[in-house]
Automatic annotation (TrEMBL):
InterPro entries: Homeodomain-like_sf, HTH-type_TetR-like_transc_reg, HTH_TetR, Tet_transcr_reg_TetR-rel_C_sf. SUPFAM superfamilies: Homeodomain-like, Tetracyclin repressor-like, C-terminal domain. Keywords: DNA-binding, Transcription, Transcription regulation. This is TetR family transcriptional regulator. It comes from the Bacteria. It comes from Williamsia herbipolensis. GO terms for molecular function: DNA-binding transcription factor activity; transcription cis-regulatory region binding.
């Protein structure tokens, strides 16, 4: 006699639960840093047992990895379209800067959590330099800078140094936003800064 297979939870339900755990982890990371982001703390924040986390994630490293993947995905969804549709390399750089600042302001806990992961030397974290998402982000930025130089819209400079400088200033903006800085003003000022830094020296 044939047996009826046990029904498995739907993918939708599983994904909703995974996202709940990722969101809870982000909150704990933003409040306590990586050291405080234990399964016990995350389970308490999510209102579930530790076993629920173990069911959805192989280990703490996998959960922290899911947090990073989620935050980069949010950023791509909210920022990249305006960068791609920009009318020039200079406009693309400004769109990337102002869009990033606006994104950070809307998702400040996510950005604080990501910074906490990248600052940590915890065995369960991976440094930013080893993340493919970061490498892809920087490659897109340097490509825009090179395109601007080829079009003679930008002056000659080391594109890797300039890209790293943009990244560093954007990183520093997270603390300012967390302290209550106005995102529109901050984005405008940083945009003006790098417009002056990259602009062609010939009329």
């Amino acid at each position: 006699m044939a047996t009826t297979p046990t029904a498995k939870p739907s993918t939708f339900i599983q994904e909703k639960r995974r996202q709940q755990l990722v969101d809870a982890t982000i909150t704990v990371l933003a409040e306590t840093g990586v050291a405080g982001a234990t399964f016990v703390a995350i389970a308490a924040r999510a209102g579930v047992s530790r076993g629920v986390i173990n069911y959805h994630f192989a280990d703490r490293a996998a959960l922290l990895d899911a947090v990073v993947v989620h935050i980069y995905s949010l950023g791509r969804d909210e920022v990249e379209s305006s960068v791609r549709s920009a009318s020039s390399p200079a406009a693309a750089i400004r769109a990337m800067i102002t869009g990033s600042i606006a994104f950070y302001a809307r998702h400040i806990h996510e950005r604080i959590a990501l910074s906490a992961i990248y600052r940590s030397d915890d065995v369960d974290t991976v440094g930013r330099g080893d993340r493919g998402e970061h490498s892809a982000e920087m490659a897109k930025l340097t490509a825009i800078l090179r395109r601007g130089q080829r079009a003679r819209e930008f002056r000659r400079f080391d594109v890797d140094v300039m890209a790293a400088s943009i990244r560093a200033v954007l990183d520093s903006a997270i603390g300012q936003l967390a302290g209550g800085a106005d995102p529109a003003r901050l984005g405008r000022e940083i945009g003006n800064l790098f417009d002056a830094a990259t602009r062609s020296e010939t009329p």
